[in-house]
Design brief:
mainly beta; globular
């Protein structure tokens, strides 16, 4: 590796937690679509509050009409998916408020959406939030962080370019 390689080319992208809570293994998500990494490698957050923030700089590539999931594409081409809760698509947008729209550029830490976690849980839904790299195969490696309590923005994934 030449001296300037490290200056001009990043080796990895750190993805922050979209919410405060507990970072847990994606294998702990009680839904095989996520735990078996069918949609991509990642991690999961057991959120302690209902505010969800941009985990990296990028552009909103997808905002589901039901507001339960949001896709962000970073400048490095990482395709992130934040999926708030399991089967929450069935809520048809109830208990969710979006603060962004598709095509909007966001910076890490920008508020993306809010979810009434108590109402979602009372409606019978698990609020665990998978954070996935949908194009995992495009990268050398996706490394999940350790299981621990996190603040929004704390690193929970490393994507090796």
């Amino acid at each position: 590796m030449g001296f300037l390689d490290g200056v001009f080319k990043k080796k990895e992208v750190e993805i922050g937690s979209p919410a405060a809570g507990k970072c847990v293994s994606i294998k702990n998500v009680p839904d095989p679509t996520f735990s078996e990494e069918i949609l991509g490698k990642g991690t999961a957050i057991e959120p302690s509050d209902g505010k969800f923030y941009a985990p990296a700089d990028g552009t909103i590539s997808t905002l589901f009409p039901t507001l339960h999931a949001i896709g962000i594409t970073t400048a490095d081409g990482v395709e992130l998916l934040i999926h708030v809760g399991l089967d929450t698509v069935n809520l048809k947008g109830a208990h969710f408020t979006a603060h962004v729209e598709e095509g909007k550029k966001v910076s890490k830490g920008d508020l993306l959406l809010e979810a009434d976690l108590k109402a979602i849980a009372e409606a019978g839904y698990n609020t665990i939030t998978p954070v996935l790299i949908c194009n995992s195969a495009d990268f050398k490696e996706v490394v999940p962080g350790e299981e621990r309590e996190v603040a929004a923005g704390d690193g929970v994934l490393k994507v090796k370019l």
